[in-house]
TrEMBL record:
PROSITE patterns: TAT. Residues 44-168 form the Gfo/Idh/MocA-like oxidoreductase N-terminal domain. The lineage of its organism: Bacteria, Pseudomonadati, Bacteroidota, Sphingobacteriia, Sphingobacteriales. SUPFAM superfamilies: Glyceraldehyde-3-phosphate dehydrogenase-like, C-terminal domain, NAD(P)-binding Rossmann-fold domains. Signal peptide: none annotated. GO terms for molecular function: nucleotide binding. Pfam families: GFO_IDH_MocA, GFO_IDH_MocA_C3. Residues 186-323 form the GFO/IDH/MocA-like oxidoreductase domain. It comes from Pedobacter planticolens. This is Dehydrogenase.
Length: 444
């Protein structure tokens, strides 16, 4: 046996071993029928769960790595999204795509069959589905790339944390799409912060202020469930509000810089610009204070206002200096006298969206267990969720109290004719949280 043969055998063993651990795929009840044979090659098979724009982009990035990958299964709630995604991916990648009709799963439970057919799954549905999809992938023993946020409420976070622990036990690599963690300027600046270049972090400010996002008009034939799923950004059981879905990127940097998570959060928010019935139930602005155990406070602001100043960045102040960061590859540290300590060179910096996949599939190809993003991602997502609890209620929300809450936003039943928990009134308007009146931790 040649060295290459040994490597291929080791890789196949690595990919399948965790699937057999603790009641993996062989005990899951799913058949391997229709799955491309891997007995004579070392191809890593991937399944795409969620075929919208971000899901299609994730598949592009996975298949753009230098490794031997093949897309073998796809799943989405909607036929048109799957069809459009399949066309785009197959046009771009040709032989790397082998997803005949029998491995294209449409509906609300097709993810189970698609997961069973792969070594690695890309979880890129609306965030409300992430906990159940991630739990299933780990139970079946699969390596995972999943987009942020990983949940939208306390019960969902607990489910993700439990699955994350199981993933560690099975040595399953999990990468989460908080891509600043994979961006060169952030990595280089954080090294210097961790080395004490600006001392202990005592305060900070993080922002995602921008315009709004898409709206998809209601059609006469849609059930309420389909309407909300088509407009998932505007409903908390699917999105978590934009403080969770989008601003989690900046909040995650706050936690990374602090190397900690807040013990309590308070703040305010409202619907000031985005007020019509097309915008579901979410706010368009949030401003919260993240208080950490050492007493330091980081200010967090996000808004969706058209025609106003945009700002997406992070600043922190330490006992010896300060730092500025942004996703455009900026990263500068100064001391308290204004002397520049470090200024990141943007030249040649890799695309962090691509780096996430490059590093994940390198680890899998090399039979390495290197990535356990799920736990820290869940805690940063939970920070954003607690922020929403604070703005909706007007209360100071303690981390430990919120983590225990039995306040699931997920529908009691999941089918096209089932009713979500938030429904429009006779005028098509949804109930909007009212600080001082809304109870966020006790709803069922």
């Amino acid at each position: 046996m040649t060295d290459n043969d040994k490597i291929r055998n080791e890789r196949r063993e690595f990919l399948k071993t965790s699937a057999l651990v603790a009641g993996g795929v062989m005990m899951s009840g799913y058949s391997w029928a229709g799955m491309p044979s891997s007995s004579n090659d070392d191809t890593i098979k991937i399944a795409l769960i969620g075929c919208g724009d971000r899901g299609t982009g994730a598949a592009f990035q996975a298949l753009s790595t230098k490794f031997n990958l093949k897309l073998v299964a796809m799943a989405d709630a909607f036929q048109d999204r799957l069809d459009n995604s399949y066309k785009a991916i197959s046009t771009k990648f040709g032989a790397k795509v082998d997803v005949p009709k029998e491995r294209q799963f449409v509906g609300l439970d097709g993810y189970k069959q698609a997961i069973a057919l792969a070594d690695v799954v890309l979880l890129v549905t609306p965030p409300g589905f992430r906990p159940i999809h991630f739990e299933e992938a780990i139970k079946q023993g699969k390596h995972v790339f999943m987009e942020k946020p990983v949940a939208v409420d306390s019960p969902g976070i607990r489910k993700v944390l439990a699955a994350a622990e199981l993933a560690k036990q099975k040595k399953l690599n999990v990468v989460v799409g908080l891509q600043r963690r994979y961006q060169t300027n952030y990595r280089e600046v954080l090294k210097r912060i961790e080395d004490g270049k600006i001392g202990d972090i005592v305060s900070g400010q993080v922002y995602w202020n921008s315009g709004g996002v898409w709206v998809k008009p209601r059609t006469a034939s849609q059930t309420e469930m389909e309407y909300q799923m088509r407009n998932w950004y505007y409903f908390n059981w699917l999105c978590g509000d934009h403080i969770v879905e989008q601003h989690v990127h900046n909040i995650d940097i706050a936690n990374w810089v602090k190397n900690a998570y807040p013990v309590s959060i308070q703040g305010t928010g409202s619907r000031a610009w985005r007020t019509g019935k097309n915008y579901g139930e979410i706010y368009d602005n949030h401003a919260v204070e993240l208080t950490y155990a050492d007493g330091s406070v980081i200010y967090s602001q996000c808004r969706h206002f058209e025609g106003t100043n945009n700002r997406v960045d992070e600043s922190f102040q330490g006992t010896k200096g300060k730092v500025y960061l942004s996703a455009n590859n900026s990263g500068i540290l100064w001391d308290h006298k204004g002397k520049e300590i470090y200024n990141h060179d943007r030249k040649g910096n890799a695309n962090p969206y691509q780096t996430e996949h490059d590093e994940l599939f390198a680890a899998i190809t090399n039979n390495e267990y290197k990535f356990w993003d799920a736990e820290r991602a869940a805690k940063s997502c939970f920070t954003a969720i607690v922020g929403r609890y604070a703005t909706y209620s007007g209360e100071v929300i303690k981390w430990d109290d919120a983590l225990k809450a039995e306040n699931s936003l997920f529908p009691e039943q999941l089918s096209w004719d089932a009713k979500p928990k938030s429904l429009p009134d006779a005028n098509g308007l949804y109930t909007i949280a009212m600080p001082g009146k809304t109870k966020v931790l006790g709803q069922s």
